[in-house]
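Q: What residues go here?
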């Protein structure tokens, strides 16, 4: 593994190795035996969109590993004034040991990897959010057992970056994945093509009450993602009914956990009650961003 651009690029074994290392790093941090595995290494972090979790967990993660992270707002970089990605990639490769980037187009992330000579990590694009889903899978293993094979994940809502990565990650880990999305908001065609290879282990419906049946993990995400603020009203209409609420949870398996990448819009994609009754799992998921990303950093920069 040279980069983390999307989960489609990783084998099931590579994902499992990251999750195993993440468990190890989490345990080491908790029992005070953490080692500075990335001493003297520098990660550049380019942000074209806002972030709380991604920025803080990468920055803290690098510090805990003995390295450092540089926050690079796209507005302040020459990239924001039109310097091409291929030149930015070649320049940054001369200073840094790795780049994390959060942006709109997946092509930009792939371009950095293609033209630079250091590992590139996708910190969210419109297409996918691999770091988040590694943390989600780590959390699922903590609650449901090390093998996720045969467990059922249900995603309700927008077929967005989170849905795309959850489908790929879940299927690669042997899970059954069911999605409920409105007709005009399906996951990306590339992801649907990938999922089709898994036969009846994947299903897509417009009916949340169908997708939720016997789920072991219930996942949702905002109706309007970053960059879609202008579509808010139209989306509120389209996603009415695509909500994780008590009725939906009643259809899932007893002990079903809830995951939400955050930030959440309580009262929209998830009710206040479901969110707060599953806050433990959701904030464990947020914490696991730190551990899962440290594992990715050690694998790529170590
Ligand atoms: N879940 C997530 O990526 O959060 P941030 O947008 O705060 O980084
Ligand atoms: N789908 C959301 C995820 C935020 C972490 C977005 O892209 O805004």
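A:
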């Amino acid at each position: 593994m040279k980069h983390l651009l999307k989960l489609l690029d990783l084998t099931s074994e590579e994902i499992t190795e990251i999750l195993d290392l993440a468990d190890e790093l989490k345990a080491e941090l908790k029992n005070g035996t953490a080692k500075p595995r990335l001493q003297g290494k520098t990660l550049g972090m380019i942000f074209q969109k806002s972030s709380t979790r991604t920025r803080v967990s990468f920055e803290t993660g690098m510090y805990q590993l003995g390295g450092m992270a540089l926050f690079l707002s796209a507005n302040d970089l020459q990239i924001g004034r039109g310097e091409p990605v291929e030149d930015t990639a070649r320049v940054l490769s001369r200073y840094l040991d790795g780049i994390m980037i959060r942006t709109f187009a997946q092509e930009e992330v792939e371009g950095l990897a293609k033209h630079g000579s250091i590992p590139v990590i996708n910190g969210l694009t419109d297409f996918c959010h691999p770091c988040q889903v590694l943390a989600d899978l780590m959390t699922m293993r903590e609650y449901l057992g090390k093998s996720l094979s045969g467990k059922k994940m249900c995603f309700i809502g927008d077929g967005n970056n989170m849905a795309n990565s959850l489908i790929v990650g879940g299927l690669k880990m042997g899970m059954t994945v069911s999605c409920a999305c409105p007709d005009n908001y399906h996951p990306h065609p590339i992801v649907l093509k990938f999922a089709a290879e898994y036969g009846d282990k994947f299903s897509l419906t417009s009916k949340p009450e169908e997708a939720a049946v016997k789920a072991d993990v219930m996942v949702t995400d905002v109706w309007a993602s970053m960059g879609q603020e202008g579509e808010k009203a139209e989306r509120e209409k389209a996603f009415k009914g695509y909500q994780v609420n008590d009725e939906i949870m009643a259809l899932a398996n007893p002990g079903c956990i809830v995951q939400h990448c955050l930030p959440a819009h309580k009262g929209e994609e998830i009710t206040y009650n479901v969110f707060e009754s599953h806050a433990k799992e959701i904030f464990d998921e947020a914490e696991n961003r730190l551990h899962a990303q440290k594992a990715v950093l050690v694998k790529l920069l170590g």
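A: Context that may help when evaluating the design: Strands lie at 42-47, 68-73, 98-102, 120-122, 152-156, 176-180, 202-205, 217-220, 257-260. The first strand starts at residue 42 and ends at 47.
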